[in-house]
Specification:
The chain contains six helices and no strands. The protein has 114 residues and is mainly α. The protein starts with a helix and ends with a helix. This is Bromo domain-containing protein. Pfam families: Bromodomain.
Length: 114
């Protein structure tokens, strides 16, 4: 089912937000699925059973696979939460995910209010 009206508009704006995040030079760790095999992070699937990345979110948005903005936002939150679950609190990756999470929540709140 394709979203209509206000929901479709919020999803369109979320797509712009995701594209903006993907264009940032520090977004590399979030752009594609974690190559846990290549990086030999054998415990990654145990700690992060529901993997998600911004590239996948973008593809799902482009293919209109989200029925609601909430579903899209849940996937975006999963990106940050996975990173913070796997990486030690205070590490560079953890801090980057925390910063992106705050930035996303600020923008999402504004999108929902408009």
């Amino acid at each position: 089912m394709t979203p209509t009206g206000d929901e479709a508009e919020v999803l369109r704006r979320l797509a712009k937000t995701i594209n903006g995040f993907l264009s940032r030079p520090d977004s590399g760790p979030f752009q594609e699925p974690v190559d846990w095999r290549g990086l030999e992070l054998w415990d990654y699937p145990e700690i992060v059973p529901n993997m998600m990345d911004l590239g996948t979110v973008k593809r799902k948005l482009d293919r209109e696979q989200y029925e609601t903005a909430y579903a899209c936002a849940s996937d975006v939150r999963l990106v940050w939460n996975n990173c913070m679950a796997y990486n030690a609190e205070g590490s560079d990756f953890w801090l980057l995910a925390k910063a992106y999470s705050k930035r996303f929540e600020d923008r999402y709140r504004k999108l929902k209010a408009e």
